[in-house]
Amino acid sequence: PPMSTARGEIPVAAFAEVDGEKRIYVCGGYDDFNLKHLKTCEYLSLVGRTWSNLTSMSTLRSGAASVLSPTGIFVICGGFTGQFYLASCEGLNLTSHKFSGLPNMSTTRGKGSAVLYHGKMVVMGGYDGNTALSSCEQYHESNKTWTPFPSMQTRRYFFGSAVLSDKIYAV
Questions:
Q1: No. of helices (H) and no. of strands (E), the chain
Q2: pLDDT tens for residues 103-141?
Q3: CA gap 109, 136 in Å, rounded
Q4: Is 20 helix (H, G, I), strand (E, B) or coil?
């Protein structure tokens, strides 16, 4: 079924099982019809095949990076508001459906990519409003800190990433 809000320009999404129900969560993006950046969130119940609206993020975000943490927090970082690129992050608790603020990344970045690697969120590349980035950083959920992570060999944005055989691939 269609979402309640049309979303383009890379909304963030996560697949999760909550209380025994499989769901797809979607936040942010860009509404091509109304020409505006979004902060709204919703999820699709794969059982009932219906969309439900959630609490909105605190900030408009298109082109953000996201992962689902091992503790069930949908972590959303960076993005573009329509005016500026972001370093801010927030987390959606999939049980309570409430957002909480998280520490900022060291670099503003939108259109980057993220993976879960050894239990930590690694955010890579993106665009800071002036140039494409090769820098990477990792988020430690246990003590809520960001630390540097080895940079990619090539600057890139609008790309996908995956972990396979203990290696991160950016394509």
A1: 0, 16
A2: 999 999 999 999 999 999 999 999 999 999 999 999 999
A3: 10
A4: coil
